[in-house]
Amino acid sequence: MGTSQTDLELVKRVQAGEKNAFDVLVLKYQQKVVNLVMRYVRDPHTAMDISQEAFIKAYKGLQNFRGDSAFYTWLYRIAINTAKNHLVTMSRRMPANDIDAQEAEQYDGADALRDGGNPETEMQKDEVHRAIISAIESLPDDLRTAISLREIEGLSYEEISQAMDCPIGTVRSRIFRARESIESKIGPLL
Amino acid sequence: MSNTTKHTTQTEYLSALLDDEAGAFEKRRLLDDVQQDQKLQQKVATYSLIGEAMRNEHASVTVRANFLTGIHDQLATEPAYNKVHIKPAANQPSWFKPVTGMALAASLAAIIVVGVTTNQSPQKWQASQQGAQVLALQATQSNENNSVGADLTAKKTEPLSLATSEPQYAVPNAAWRKRLKSYVNSHVKYASTSAIMPSVRAVSYAANF
Questions:
Q1: What residue in B sits closest to A148 (Cα-Cα)?
Q2: B53: nearest CB among A21, A44, A133
């Protein structure tokens, strides 16, 4: 979700003193940041703590954010540095393959950096993920295609409308309906 | 429109907003709503979670609802977080600041000119008073001879005595200085707090206030 304009609008609001605009940024990127930090630490609770610390650092530094880079790229660097500092403090081994900020959006190598957690955690984390994947597979073809082109391929609505040969309004509606359908199935697990 | 339909439309636009596909108007309106509505905030978190799950085939830890609360709790101990922010004047156009700055500079220049005139001789002050009286008399005659809508350009008027004489300067007395000071104070206050552009006001010493 490279939504730079919406992010910039939210950042401006935070800079203007609207604290709850920062909540929206947290809610939008919390999962992404935790996934990122989980490449560096094995323990989910530690990953949560580090992620929270990263968001707090981001909030404190947001007045100095000038929008030279995308908000998430900036947040990504903060999260990585926070995780690295934690590892240094804990004298743990750093991940062998470091990841560049450019790869932040696409990186898909979480399991390469982690060597597992306890079975209980594995079950818990799999539950929501499995439910989401299952919900996606059960979607009607047009909804599944639309949301996949958006979330996985990163296409714009206009590009999706061309690919699916339908109006942009239909694309918007299909993506929305897909998300609603998935949400209704995973809701009880959240 | 029923509440359900309205909510559906709103969440549909929220879905588009997260894809950066909402229009400028919807974006502003939705962000205002999201900041106040916890249900919409939950939608943001869930939609983002779905996207992350789709992009990462490998299972990851799911962030729970208390994640944000934890951040709030930690930020609450920060003095900067609790400080009340004063929102700057909303949406001032880009030209506003330089224009108000120029207006203030022009005002200061006018004050300096007035200040210089205080060094002029009393004779010139008297000449200025006479010129001002001529202006006042002409204005009175003009008002008497012209009704509203009359062709003012066709009417001949006597040349102003001030136009043919040397520039006249005034030496303000204490009352005038006091009045000028109040003008300056009012202007500074006006220019610094109002969203309306300050205007340049020409003050004639001949005018009756």
A1: B54
A2: A133
Q: Give the closest residue to A109 by CA, choosing from A118, A99, A119.
A: A99
Read off the pLDDT band of A68 (50, 70, 90).
confident
User: Tokens in use for B92?
Assistant: 């001032």
List pLDDT tens digits, range A119-165: 555 555 568 888 999 999 999 999 999 999 999 999 999 999 999 99
Based on the domain organization, do A60 and A135 belong to the same domain? Answer: no
Amino acid at A31: Q
Instruction: State whether A51 and A108 are in the same domain.
Output: yes
State which residues form the domain around A87.
Answer: 4-115
Task: For residue B36, give how far its alpha carbon lies from the nearest alpha carbon of chain A (Å).
Answer: 8
DSSP state of A4: H
The domains of chain B are located at 3-82, 96-146+160-193
A77 shares a domain with A166: no
Residue A111 and residue A31 in one domain? yes
CATH code of A56's domain:
1.10.1740.10
Predicted-complex ipTM score: 0.80
Answer left, alpha or beta for residue B133, where phi above 0 means left and psi between -120 and 50 means alpha.
Answer: alpha
- Separation CA A64–CA A188 (nearest Å): 40
Instruction: Provide, as residue numbers in chain B, all residues whose Cβ is less than 8 Å from the Cβ of A70.
Output: none
| CA distances, A173 to each of A47, A159, A167, A183 (Å) | 35, 15, 10, 15
Cα A104 → chain centroid:
10
Q: Tell me the nearest-neighbour CA distance from A91 into chain B, angstroms.
A: 24
Contact A28 B45 (CB under 8 A): yes
Four-CA torsion A57, A59, A63, A68, nearest 10 degrees: 80
Residue B45 to chain A, least CA–CA distance (Å): 5
> Under 8 Å CB-to-CB from A101, ≥6 apart: which residues?
A73, A76, A77
Asked if the Cβ–Cβ distance from A52 to B70 is below 8 Å, we say yes
CB–CB contact A6 B27 (8 Å): yes
Nearest CA-CA partner of B42 in B58, B66, B60: B66
